[in-house]
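Researcher: First entry.
Model:
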Amino acid sequence: MRPARVLSTFATAALLAAMALPAAAQSKKKIGLAVANLQADFFNQIKQSVEAYARTKGLEVIVVDAKGDATTQVNQVQDLITRQIDALIYIPAGATAAAVPVKAARRAKIPVVNVDRNAAGAPGDTFFATDGVKATRELGEWVCKKTGGKGNAVIIHGQKGTTPEIDRSKGWAEAMAKCPGIKVTAQQYTERWAADEGAKIAQDMLQRDPSITIIFGQADGIALGASRAVKLANLGKKVWVVGFDGDPGGLEAVKSGALDATVTQQTQKMGRMAVDAALDLIAGKKVPAEQLQGGTLTTKDNVAGFIAKHP
């Protein structure tokens, strides 16, 4: 019977070791990252920052890309919930149905960290974004100064009703209120904040009104498209084109003169902060409801530093 006891001891030890393995695996926290559209460089930078920083924390990150479709994103977040994520970092694909994923996560007792866009009526547990009103106001004031406070301006908006679209519109309006010599003569919304939309809209605007001298594209992609339309229009005069985001392509365009200015957001920092906030919420810690970050007016004078190292 002695050998049987030895075998039993070994079997017990093996069983205990086997039981310990799943517990160790389960200790690795799992973060869901629901992104609006990875075709946009801004969102790609957030994704890369979250993934890189999460690795240093020993976290697993599951990324889903809505490709700009709100219905797709609702389904993706439901799938993340079934995969038992511990927290959700969420960038809504649009204003429509933006609250649905937050409510679903809340029902599953999963904390939500919103980045760049919040959901009206159902905000995340915390929200990281650039102070778009302040940053756009500074951009508009710079345009007013550079143009001598005169001109006909058009605005090519981002996706209607989203947090950045609302804030950037408000900031620009505040700047123009102090610059009465600049008249906003036309405005139009995009669906994807994309360069092809910016190019098409700007082309139509310039054909209808060649007196346009200022174009504000509410994202660098939009502004880059508008810049191409200005070049093709060959109006024989200066048309100021400014954007927002500080995407690598936008920064290079500022350096080359294709864009006159942009606002550089702290994308890398916001990605890291979102991960830290997710960990705090998982641990039951309280975090501020809103955590706005500064954006920096970027022109040829300071663009080189942002190209060398994006904040």
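Researcher: Second entry.
Model:
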Amino acid sequence: MTDATQSKDDFYKALSNEELFNWPTVFRDGLFKDQVVLITGAAGGIGRACGILFGRLGATIFGCGRDAGRLETLRTDLAKLDIASSMRAMSVRDPEQAAAVVDEVWERYGRMDVLINSAGGQFAAPAFDITPKGWHAVVETILYGSWYMTQAAGRRWRDHGHPGSVVNMATVMGKAAAGIPHTVAARAGQINLGKSLSVEWAPHRIRINSISIGVVASPGLVNYPLSARPSFGHNPMRRVGDVMDVAEAAAYLSAPSAKFITGAVLTVDGGEQVWGEYWPLGKPDYFKVQE
């Protein structure tokens, strides 16, 4: 993904597991040796990249998500690189399942070091047309799910006197994203939840940060109409990112490199927050400026 002239199919092609296994990284081998990383949405594009990168850097991976088949494929692929992992099909929208999966990590490994809240999901639609069911599905997965998982993890870290790091996968804030109001509402809540908890839980040595993500190459982009494509690479770098851009940001925030960072938002968006337009439903005629 190098410029603004990509073919339409390129936008939907995330890096494969094999490509992620061989993708160059700036981080040293063994960085997360003996650590355990819990990733929600582990079989998705960003969650999968995080699992592979952290595993390559020495971590044991515990992945969870809704699709048992995709999770098993990831576990099998990780095993090919001698990356230890466990997977659990579950829903982050259920607080009892969230608590149970955190308990399982501690029972199995006796520790947990990093939680990456990558579970999500969204769809573009006019605000007038979003049903209560659609609203609940997005907000409960992103905001409620992050809360349930983070609270469960935080309680365990507190009880064991163990330091912990939470990384929330969010989106670019500070400007409108017409067409995905449920997503931006949930992500804003997710970011500010993290900021509040970073203060309250600092005495327990629990750090909580978020990554504000722009457009990255992913099969999920196929859910957007053709009219949205012109804005995918509308940023100063004039291209979309890749999932490893986000995974490396998560590694930075989880490693000793970020030992003095908490309550922060790291933006990975090619500069979209300073210049660019993002129209998930395509740019309305009303906003097209005539030269």
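Model: Note on the second entry: The radius of gyration is 18 Å.
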